[in-house]
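From: lab user (bench 3)
To: helpdesk
Subject: output format question, protein + glutamine

Hello, I'm new to running complex predictions and I'm not sure whether the block I got back is the full result or only part of it. Here's what I submitted:
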Amino acid sequence: MQGAFAEHIKALEAAGARTRLVRSREDLDGLDGIVLPGGESTTMTMLMERVGMLAPLRQAIERGLPTLATCAGMIVLAREITDGMADQKGLDLLDIAVRRNGYGRQVDSFEAPLQIDGLDGKTFPGVFIRAPLVERTGDVEVIARHDGHPVAVRHGRITALGFHPELSGDLRLHREFVRLAAGQR
Ligand code: GLN
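Helpdesk reply: Thanks, we reran it on our side. This is the complete output you should expect:
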């Protein structure tokens, strides 16, 4: 709908996937997986609601569509959103509470090496841009932390990241996602 999708397309195609933009509910048909990119979560949910995509997208992800959500995408999935617009609706599919732009002004963008469970043990370059701060986690698996705060979580076939792997030049997370999506065929 909005945001940093062009870089995800490049990373997904480099990882061997074919991609398409999802801008209407019809575009959801026949997908093996979906990426919810970074951008502005308030704009994304507003646009999704306008085109009637919130409910069908929620249903598809709930039924097990492999999903990679980054930054604003993580906010869109979250159960609780603080510092959002008063009526910011989320998909309520991930049992986490996030604070928008929760890293504050001074460090609103930064890079940090992350140790991510399930990767090969080498650190992943975490690119954080006005990232959400995960303040509470419930029924999710935390697969990476930074300064004690969860920055990557997993639940079923959903992987949600507070950072931007598509801007890191490191394809490992996209490759892992493409393998998962291909395995669902
Ligand atoms: N601050 C944005 C939001 O609240 C997220 C920033 C990003 O996706 N890089 O939606």
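A quick orientation on your result: The first helix runs from residue 5 to 14. Let us know if anything else is unclear.
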